[in-house]
């Protein structure tokens, strides 16, 4: 017979790594006011499980198969505006965090801080608050006035990160090489980068591109 109180917080965990889901379960299972009621391994499963269970909280990773975490957040919030969603991620960059928060996340936690922060974050968000990892908050504060890269600029820089030259990128995107060079100048200026490698490094650190 369950000893959980009637007011226990019902939680769904969405992450494509079983070990992470088990780790979250281990943190929660000792708490009388919380229970994990479902698990998902992909973004699409997360959306479907939210529809089915409508939990009090959902914890979800940003990088998941089928549908990434940010897209899943947008979809859930479009159907359930009051949904309370917390991102669990390895990405400490401000760009990825801002993307998730704008999509509707109420919390943003780094996986390496779960044991320290998870329970407080869940209780805070369940009570209507917000929770942002301190390291991520610091990154956001540092870059708050920076100009964001456009979708096209991020697309170009992602191709740079994959080793493509300006000529190859121009061919891939059906643009002129001069247009790509112009975009690169703007990218350097926005990031404060000295060259292509520096730009890729800075953008990856901030979560703008994946390498």
From TrEMBL:
Pfam family, one: GerE
PROSITE patterns the record matches: HTH_LUXR_2, RESPONSE_REGULATORY
Response regulatory domain sequence ranges: 10-126
Domain of life: Bacteria
Residue span(s) of domain HTH luxR-type: 142-207
Keywords, sorted A to Z: DNA-binding, Phosphoprotein
Record bears the keyword DNA-binding: yes
Keyword Protein biosynthesis: no
InterPro entries per UniProt: CheY-like_superfamily, NreC/VraR/RcsB-like_REC, Sig_transdc_resp-reg_C-effctor, Sig_transdc_resp-reg_receiver, Tscrpt_reg_LuxR_C, WalR-like
Residues annotated with 4-aspartylphosphate modification: 61
Protein name as it appears in the record: Response regulator transcription factor
């Amino acid at each position: 017979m369950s000893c959980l109180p009637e007011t226990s917080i019902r939680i769904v965990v969405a992450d494509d790594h079983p070990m992470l889901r088990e780790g979250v379960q281990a943190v929660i299972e000792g708490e009388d006011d919380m229970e994990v009621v479902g698990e998902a391994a992909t973004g699409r499963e997360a959306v479907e499980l939210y529809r089915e269970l409508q939990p009090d909280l959902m914890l979800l990773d940003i990088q998941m198969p089928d549908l990434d975490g940010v897209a899943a957040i947008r979809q859930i919030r479009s159907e359930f505006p009051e949904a309370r969603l917390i991102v669990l991620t390895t990405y400490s960059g401000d760009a990825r965090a801002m993307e998730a928060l704008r999509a509707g996340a109420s919390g943003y936690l780094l996986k390496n801080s779960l044991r320290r922060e998870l329970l407080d974050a869940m209780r805070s968000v369940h009570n209507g608050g917000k929770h942002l990892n301190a390291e991520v908050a610091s990154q956001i504060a540092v870059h708050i006035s920076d100009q964001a890269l456009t979708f096209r600029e991020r697309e170009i820089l992602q191709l740079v990160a994959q080793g493509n030259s300006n000529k190859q990128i121009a061919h891939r995107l059906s643009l002129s090489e001069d247009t790509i060079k112009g975009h690169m100048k703007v990218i350097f200026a926005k990031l404060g980068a000295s060259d292509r490698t520096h730009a890729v490094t800075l953008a990856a650190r901030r979560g703008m591109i994946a390498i």
